[in-house]
Amino acid sequence: MNKENKQLRFVKTKYEDKINDIINKMTIDEKIGQLNQVGTSIYGSEEKFYKDLIREGKVGSFLSLDGVKKINMLQKISLEESRLKIPLLFANDIIHGYRTIFPIPLAESCSWDEELARKTARASAMESWAAGINWTFAPMVDIARDPRWGRISEGFGEDTYLSGILAKAKVDGYQGEDLSKNGNILACAKHFTAYGGAEGGRDYNTVDMSRQQLHEVYIPPFKEAIKAGVGTLMAAFNDLNGVPCTANKYLLKDVLKDKLGFEGVIISDYNAIAELITHGHSKDLSCGTNAAFNSGIDVDMCSFGYLKNLKELIDEGSISIDDLNESVRNVLRLKFMLGLFDNPYKSDEKLENEYVMKKEYLELSRESAQKSIVLLKNSEKILPLDKNLKKISLIGPLADNKEDLLGSWATTGNKERVVTVLEGLNKAVCDKTDIMYSIGCEIEGEDEKYFNEAIEMAKKSDAIIAVLGESALMSGEAHCRSNIDLPGVQEKLLKKLNEIGKPIVLVLMNGRPISIPWADKNISAIIEAWHLGTEAGNAICDVLFGNVNPSGKLTTTFPHTSGQIPVYYNHTNTGRPPEKSKSIYEYDSKYIDSPITPLYPFGYGLSYTNYEYSNLEIYPKQISKNGEIDVRIDVKNLGDREGDEIVQLYIQDLFASRVRPVKELKDFRKVKLQPGEVKIVTFKLNISNLGFYNENMEYVVESGDFKVFVGTNSEEVLEDGFEVI
Ligand code: NOJ
After folding, report:
1. Which of 183, 343, 611, 658 has the fewest CB atoms lying closer than 10 Å?
2. Which helix (H) or strand (E) holds 266?
């Protein structure tokens, strides 16, 4: 039992009698109904069907509905026309905002800002709560080391430690202190687990990995979400080491419930119980239902397996009534915690109008977008641009585009309200600046018909801003790419614009790292702007013209080419690491046709100022396995403007019974530095957190030498060491 999972344990005690009273009154069908999640639409031919299901007590929750009027109408049916009048849950994917859209999670993670992550989750919770939603399927805390995988956009990047911090912040932000209070909604940590480890970066694909890697890399962010009291968890679509996660007793019972002490509700992913058949695991829906339920899935998302088969499985003794009661208890407990039995109509249209797209959410959207931007290159100091430039040409398929700026999972987002770069630019420059715009080309496809118009326009300008990248739907669920270059003819256009010889800034918008070796070599100013949401255009111009000094740092490695993938910072060494060897055979972990190092490493990001790191000190230099060491370093702002620097601390266990990563992030600080200011940045490292799972799956810290690295990214670091005795 996890002692830190306070919220659920407390409430469990408080509501248990009431829950048992209801359970005692329920028929088996009504119990099964609580475990049944239905619908993505209730209109047309399906409307009567769903309403009747509610009346019969055969629905516990709805998926993907929004709008308080519709939601309250369905709630009313349950409360007035069903026998036991149990309130319904309304779940939705509020991934990075409801109507006000915040940066995609991958972008926001580049802020390395726990408080910001909490605030954007809070705002998303308030806005969607007012629209009747009481359960979000977020945060997605899957580690992603393969940028071909489309859902890399929905998570916090490749690092386990940072993802854990942000997972906790998101759960706090959505759920608040007390779920029954206005504006708080249930969170769902997903997808359990190793979903991001899909072979070939193809969504839903097989995952085969060691238990050690699973527990060291993929599970810890879920552990943090559980510690924060997350109410629900979603099982992943993939199979893990041959067993689909939906029917994986080891994962859902042994790990989640027994080891991590999770006491909330486990839901399947969409139709995943039925898909146990196509996986080749269960021969029909009844077998799938049996396997999923007995492995620990409480709620069936939309496969109707529980509704159709659970009763029969109970009758024949394959599923125990005690287990059924336990799952129903888990669901009812959450309904009590949300306060739905006392106040089932939490919001109304007046509140909805008041909350949706509030000024403060829009301001937060701009702030979070500013903090998510990563400056990748500024070698000629073109940036920040002068607001008094006479003529600026703005070129590219994403320069005046609203929809794609919303990002991969913003179906509820308000598209009309998105600020494009063109709109932002018009507000950012002085009255006399002439802004010229051309789409240049489409995001995809071979058509070059706008090239001439763009080139002629660019020739007349003092500076070119090229806004290129991916559409929103080139990342996200089921949208994986085998080649992560700039799509279509965009690079060709960029080359032509570069030939003109004017100062040129490349603004990238994408839901994953993209490989841009040519641009990196030839374009002197590059900004990674991801898909930043409602206020994207304003935030990008804030950075372009220097109102904001960029401070974001990459949370995912950028490769030179797709063929290098997977490339991530915390890999282990082979016996022949390339740097230290001479002959080709001693270089065996190298490619003969491409670098193996990243184009931009994890933790990388520039600023309009620069920082100097010095005087790294560690105390003590020898320490016991349960001790703590202090690390300190001086960081100085060498430039003439204020900046926020993300100071990163990594360790390496030099020799161990299982080879360890060359670096592992263990802490970081975001510090504000005035021009010329020096700050002493301090860290405390708890040695018991520096361990790993040995061959017997025991978590151990082994004696020996460790290195400590502190620096501005995972490659530019100062180093020292200590010994664990
Ligand atoms: C499938 C996705 O994998 C999951 O993340 C999402 O929450 C559900 N569909 C519901 O929309």
Report:
1. 343
2. strand 265-267
